Amino acid sequence: MSLLEVRNLHAGYGDAEVLFGIDLTVERGEVVAIVGSNGAGKTTLLRTLSGIVTPTAGQVLFINRDVTGLQPHLLVEEGIVMVPEGRRLFPRLSVRRNLEIAAYSKRARPKLAESLRDVHELFPILKERSDQLAGTLSGGQQQMVALARGL
Ligand SMILES: Nc1ncnc2c1ncn2[C@@H]1O[C@H](COP(=O)(O)OP(=O)(O)O)[C@@H](O)[C@H]1O
Ligand SMILES: [Mg+2]
Predict the structure, then answer these.
(1) How confident is the model at residue 86 (pLDDT cuts 50, 70, 90)?
(2) Is ligand 1 within 6 A of the CB of residue 48?
(3) For the residues 121-150, what does the mean pLDDT come to?
(4) Which CATH superfamily is domain 4-78 in?
(5) 84 within ligand 1 shell (Cβ under 6 A)
């Protein structure tokens, strides 16, 4: 069973169609890169998979569940998160608060302590910098917070 299966996905903005029938499979443990020129539709594809843009046709299956067209907050509960371009942290909140907010969802809330331990193991600097305002971290460290938030 594939982790993510995208079939004939169409999406766009109003009358402007951007995605014309995307087919894509991601297996568990696999990393897939989408490569394309500026304006090709990479961000639109990720926005559609995270529910920010609603598909006009096609199907998205996540661990064999049909999640096509679900709203972003419901996709997060399914386990699909986007780590956005440009990070979008809360710069005036601490690293710890940024990560706690990430665990707001029903799915993540009961596992906050365990998840914090896991991401601190992955990015030890984030544990050291727990009380630092996220906006005062280096760019790379902020990227770690963005990834940790997703996890
Ligand atoms: N909010 C929007 N409204 C209308 N058109 C958009 C919007 N966002 C992106 N587009 C258009 O959709 C196309 C694909 O953009 P995008 O997915 O951002 O490309 P990429 O990430 O591959 O550079 C571009 O032609 C872009 O101008
Ligand atoms: Mg883009």
Answers:
(1) confident
(2) no
(3) 97
(4) P-loop containing nucleotide triphosphate hydrolases (3.40.50.300)
(5) no
Residue boundaries of the structural domains of the chain:
4-78, 95-150
Q: Return the sign of the alpha-carbon dihedral for residues 72, 78, 83, 88.
A: positive
**Per-residue confidence (pLDDT) for residue 16, from 0 to 100:** 96
Quick one: tokens of 74?
Answer: 């419901």
The atom of ligand 1 lying closest to the CA of 36 is: 22
What confidence score (pLDDT) does residue 6 get? 98
Q: Is the CB of 44 under 6 A from ligand 1?
A: yes
Query: Measured from the CA of 38, which atom of ligand 1 is nearest?
Result: 23
Tokens of 78: 């399914």
Integer Cα distance of 110 and 8 in angstroms: 36
Say what the alpha-carbon torsion angle 141, 142, 147, 149 is, to the nearest 10 degrees. 120
pLDDT of residue 129: 97
Cβ atoms 137, 87 nearer than 8 A: no
